[in-house]
């Protein structure tokens, strides 16, 4: 017999969903049968499986150790040693949320099992700092709420608890958080604009196209930008991501005739080559810079009204200096 006591990360989950996490190799019919036969009970009583867990609830599994072991999964292994060169900087942390500054070159989430991603560094940080116990991974996995392209640097928001993850995801879904990026683009731009377009995905090539009219399969996009300073053949932009579509900023700016420098997918090869040769530039110069949070209560109340900011990575500095655009105060 085993007992499972619901903590704050189990609270709010359905009993059957929680059992599926503890016994991931068991068919649904198995644990529903065990519930009917009272071989699995909730707070000493028969349960149907649709009950919403509360903190402190007690699940008893009247099953043999062999049966539990047979149907149990194991938490995903974290690489024993993660490369320090990709380790994100912790920008801000509360009991339920964490904000990281992702370096360019690191995946936000795994594309294949052997990949190393920001999620690995998140789990490594929480496990090593005592913010998470290995056994807790059976019922809840902290996660990243927003995704940045591999070669884009900057702010990632992560939920450390179930409640934190749910509230952050809701903010991104409802667009109540303001998100600002810095981009160095080709050409000199003097006027800020808010522009809309329609984005269509090409899944085969992992690219998107921008159209000026709605068509079948398109999604509306909304982007605003403000020139901060023009340099020698380029401009540093502050970009507000109003909608959050795949490759939106990169493709939208390229469509407007001002591709991001270093962008090998949507940029201009001749321009990119010159920056590679002159500065050794390997990444697109796009950075998730600021997140401005709305007024909040509840588990994220410590974040209420805050503006979180990720410093620019070092590989920007020689490019900006060469263009005569010096790091503005507070961006370094």
TrEMBL record:
SMART domains: S4 (SM00363). It holds the Pfam family PseudoU_synth_2. Residues 13-73 form the RNA-binding S4 domain. It catalyses: a uridine in RNA = a pseudouridine in RNA. One of its GO terms (molecular function) is rRNA pseudouridine synthase activity. Keywords: Isomerase, RNA-binding. InterPro entries: PsdUridine_synth_cat_dom_sf (IPR020103), PsdUridine_synth_RsuA/RluA (IPR006145), RluA_PseudoU_synthase (IPR050188), S4_RNA-bd (IPR002942), S4_RNA-bd_sf (IPR036986). One of its GO terms (biological process) is enzyme-directed rRNA pseudouridine synthesis. It comes from the Bacteria. Belongs to the pseudouridine synthase RluA family. This is RNA pseudouridylate synthase. It comes from Cuneatibacter caecimuris.
